[in-house]
From TrEMBL:
Subcellular location: Cell membrane
Topology in the lipid bilayer: Multi-pass membrane protein
Compositional bias segments (type: Basic and acidic residues): 227-243
Family: Belongs to the UPF0126 family.
Domain of life: Bacteria
UniProt keyword terms in alphabetical order: Cell membrane, Membrane, Transmembrane, Transmembrane helix
Domain spans labelled Glycine transporter: 6-78, 94-166
Segments traversing the membrane: 6-25, 32-53, 65-84, 91-108, 120-139
Alphabetical list of InterPro entries matching this protein: Gly_transporter (IPR005115)
Residue ranges, annotated region (Disordered): 210-243
GO cellular-component term (any): plasma membrane
Protein name: Trimeric intracellular cation channel family protein
Amino acid sequence: MTEWVYWLDLAGVVVFALSGVILACRTRMDPFGMLVLAAVTGIGGGTLRDLVLGVRPVFWVTDPTYLWVILATVGLSLVGFHYIHRLSRGFLPVADAFGLALFTVIGTHKALLLGSPAEVAVLMGLLTGVAGGMVRDILARRIPMVLREEVYATASIAGGITYVTLDGLGAPFTAIIGGSLAVTLGLRLAAIHWKLSLPVFAWVTLPPKEPPPESAADASRQSAQVAKERVRIIRRDRDQESR
C-alpha cells in the first residue's frame, strides 16, 4: 500500500512538473524559469498541505528524491524541447488533469493517515491538487484555472469525497484509489472535452427605464388641446380690452 502511494506521488510530481515546463516554454522563459515553474507545480501543493497539517519537515526535505525527479523532468524536457514545443495546446490541460487527480488522491490519503476528519481530508486533497497549479499560473501571469468558471476544483472535491466515502465503507485500497482517480479525472476530462463550466455570477447595472414613446394619435391630440387653450386665452384678452 505504501509503495503504491509513493509511486503515485512521484508520478504526480512528474506530470505537474511537465505542465510547468510546457507553460514556461509558451511564455518564453529561460531554463531557470522552467525549473522554478516545474518545482512550484510539482511540490507546491504538497508543501502547503504538510504545513497546514503540521508535518515537519515537509515531504521533499525528508526525501530529496522529489527534487531529483523534478530536475530530471526539466533536463529531459530541455533535451526534447523541439518535441515539447510542437505539442498541441490541449496537452497542457490534459496533463494538468492527470496531475490534479493523482494529487487529490495523495492529499486525501495523507490527511486520513494523520487522523484528520473526512471534511479536512477532502480539503487537503483539494489543496494538494490545486495549490501548485495556482502558483504556476500566477508566476506565468495567467488567471489560475481554479478561479475560472471551468470544472476544476469541483472535480477535485468530488474525487476527495469519493475517497473518504469508499474508505469509510471499508472498500479495498485499490478500489479506493481507482474510484477516486476515475471520478476526478473523468469530471475534469469531460469538462475539457465538452467545455463544461459552472455558472458565472456578475453584477449587472441596468440602464434607467425610458418613458414609452407617444403614439401619433396622442401627439396630435395633445397639440389640438394646446391650440384650443391658446385660442381661449386670445379671446379672453380681447373681451377684456373691449370692456
